[in-house]
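Trying the structure run again after the queue cleared.
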Amino acid sequence: MNFYPHHISDFNNSTRHLTRVERSVYRDAIELYYDSESVLTLDLDRLAKRLLCSSDEEKTALNDVLGEFFEVHGDGYFHARCDEEITKYRANTSAKARAGKASAEARKLKAAERKQKSTRVKNSSTPVHNQEPITNNQEPLNINNMFERFWEAGMVKTNKKKAHPIFKKIIQSQKDPESFTDKLVFDVGERIRLGQGGFENMHPTTYLNNERWNDEIRPSSGFAVNYPVAANQLSDKTKHRTVAAQLSDTSWTN
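Done. Tokens:
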């Protein structure tokens, strides 16, 4: 991660009882956690070296900080709140990447369509009745492409076969299907990015049937983890850390 949210007042309230050395070591520890996007090693000598803890006072401070703010897991010391922020960061980055890829594919397809239409106009020998099958063959391809962009926007990927005809019916009723698809992709990505409550588990069919793109976007006020996948797709380690995060005291923010 290139950055992470650091709320000064919350951090101060949670570390007010620490010494200056302990506060400094704790800040360095969570920054290493965010920078590496992984748990801290169980090798205390190696960890102390990476955090520049060379004196006895600094090493003692490191032990105290680890004991108070971190929990020991199978592969190292993990921090529930840091894991939440890393998960949200990765989800947002992945959603943007998918949206960018889908947009590039749509532009490429549209350019190919314009070129094909231009070729047909210039070829005056082509009978008019021969153009209709070409148009019919292109239509499902366009809809399929737009649906894939919507499908990859970030919601739970479930009931794809059921969602496709619903999407097709909606998109065919629009004056500008491409622009409307862009609207849906942006709407889904924005709600997930802002952590709208319950949206990370919403099925595409529910979103489409209830025209949820017309709802007001309400960012979450809590620290719930926004997963772009269903719970049964999460690894055991991620499930463990999510439960730990929900049970821990989230009244402070790094």
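The two ends are 14 Å apart (CA to CA). Worth checking whether this holds up in the mutant runs.
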